[in-house]
Amino acid sequence: MEMKEFGLNDIVEMKKGHPCGANAWKIIRMGADIRIKCEGCGHSVMLPRVEFNKKMKKVLVKAEKE
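== DUF951 domain-containing protein ==
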């Protein structure tokens, strides 16, 4: 299994779209759990890291390193 690279403030695409119609999510918190926020409606969801790794499809936009 390949490890997907993602970090804080990256915009990611999940396997399933959000009911609001958008499928871009921003990573707003990382730890044992990962919190993502829908770029369409602003709804946020917290997922265990293992589940997030399974459901994430790809990174759309990498956040700029400061």
